[in-house]
Write a structure and sequence with these properties.
alpha/beta; Rossmann fold; 11 helices
């Protein structure tokens, strides 16, 4: 992976393929390798950019508090470094929150948006409190707390569960804690989403335990010309449990 200093953050990223630029943004608490199988199916259609968000994978964490918009600014800085002005973004779960923040701040740079197992809603007060509680538990006991709580909710597939758990356990405590707090403070971007004038693909498993498929259906209702792709029997990791279908859906952003 290459590493680039942007916004005083050393951001690791991989670039592969050729065609229209597409950035694949990983979810919480994972890294860019989540996309490996799907990326291999897209590299003949897209110039793929796969970053590790700050605090995840090979991108070091920062000590100060930050927001989804700060993480979006990191990606804008990375694109500046790479000489990419306009790009399609596909974000998984938290990566969708970052993609939405990017599209809100830099709409002129977005050629399309894919939300994969994601949503536009902010946390409820109960969910927000839960994230801060989890961050405290991670500080005291490590990222295994999150791995234990989340792994089975990603997928019913045992192979996927093993891969997800391994991914979680290799992340840093500070990165996981920082992202939890950033997600807790994110804004509701539903109205912003409804005003987007570029192509949108909503890709969601119909048995997602972490973000219900109803969130994607609500977004389809809010923006009728968004394309909704529901994946039967798929949970919160479509790019792992249904890589081919996820890749085909993302080709809608070409």
């Amino acid at each position: 992976m290459e590493k680039t200093l942007v916004n005083n953050v050393m951001l690791a990223h991989e670039r592969v393929g050729s065609g229209k630029p597409l950035m694949l943004i990983h979810g919480f608490p994972l890294d860019h390798t989540l996309w490996n199988e799907t990326a291999s199916l897209l590299k003949n259609d897209f110039d793929l950019i796969l970053p590790d968000l700050r605090g995840f994978g090979e991108s070091p964490a920062v000590d100060s508090a930050y927001t989804m918009t700060d993480m979006a600014d990191d990606l804008a800085g990375l694109l500046n470094h790479l000489g990419v002005e306009k790009i399609a973004l596909a974000g998984h779960s938290m990566g969708g929150y970052v993609a939405l923040a990017f599209a809100g701040k830099y709409p002129q740079r977005v050629s399309g948006l894919g939300l994969v197992a994601s949503q536009t809603l902010a946390d409820t007060s109960e969910r927000k409190d839960g994230r801060y509680k989890t961050a405290k538990q991670v500080a005291e006991n490590g990222v295994g707390v999150v791995a234990d709580a989340m792994t089975a909710k990603f997928s019913a597939n045992e192979k996927t569960q093993g891969e997800i758990r391994s991914l979680i356990l290799r992340q840093s405590k500070s990165g996981v804690m920082g992202a939890l707090k950033a997600m807790a403070e994110r804004e509701d971007l539903t109205l912003l989403f409804a005003a987007f004038d570029f192509p949108v693909a909503l890709i969601h498993g119909d048995v997602d335990e972490l973000i219900p498929v109803d969130r994607a259906r609500e977004l389809k209702a809010a923006r009728s010309f968004a394309q909704l792709i529901e994946l039967a029997g798929v949970g919160h990791a479509p790019m792992m449990d249904a890589a081919e279908k996820t890749a085909e859906a993302l080709k809608l952003l070409k």
